[in-house]
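Translate sequence into structure tokens.
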Amino acid sequence: MADVKKIATRESYGNALAECGEKYPNLLVLDADLAGATKTGVFKKAFPERHIDCGIAECNMTGIAAGLATCGKIPFISSFAMFAAGRNFEQVRNSIGYPHLNVKIGATHAGITVGEDGATHQCNEDIALMRTIPGMTVIVPSDDVEARAAVEAAINYVGPVYLRFGRAAVPVINDREGYQFEIGKGVLLREGKDVTIVATGICVSAALEAAEKLAADGIDAEVINIHTIKPLDEELVLASAKKTGRVVTAEEHSVIGGLGSAVCDVLSAKLPTKVCKIGMQDVFGESGTAAALVEKYGLDGSGIYETTKAFVKG
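Result follows.
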């Protein structure tokens, strides 16, 4: 994938907000003193009167956004995932989730690809936290194209949405004719008959790489991109599991409460299937380069390939 264009989805987030600013006059962007890192500074430059820097006060920012939503505005609150979902959980639950307000949460720097900032900033629990809030939509884009599409889809969706973006540059894989983003609808990227790899976020491109390696071993892997964790595309997951009989999930998140858990919930209830969950195995991350950490924790193409091969053979 050396020749593939790469861009961080946090960059896509900032660019998409700025692009949507003219089209959606009710769009407001709030940030917690991190506009440079979350890339909402791009929107601030274009629409300074519609960008609010709330300072290092994420919980207060959430309350402000909730109030703005009651006035017909479409506010996006922005911070690192560790703060937007972690520090902020009570306010998101009670001020946004409970009254089901039209607030969007742009959480950047999610997962271990935060890299050198280490375990305190590597939020691998945010999907689990947001999934538990009734009525919360949870979206994890896989690349630049999907991230931009997800931002506009969130603007047009009425209700709370959690969008998860990353710090590190990732391959652009959806720049193809006919690509369409729809909240709640997964994307079948590769058909196969021996095993299904259901991936989200940065693990989607890695899953495609793994599928190529598996094909060389005579293992025909189906690859599904689940960009919306909640609501999950149950129909697509069930149809694929029925065909292959084995499912692997891959995510840059804890295997507890994230994509793997969501997939297991539906399969255990409707089509009991053997599942292998690839992700952070109930451990904290550590400081290191994004590439080194992804490799160490088996979330790259080679790691997904090795784990899936062992699962199929085993």
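Note: The chain has two domains: 6-171, 187-308.
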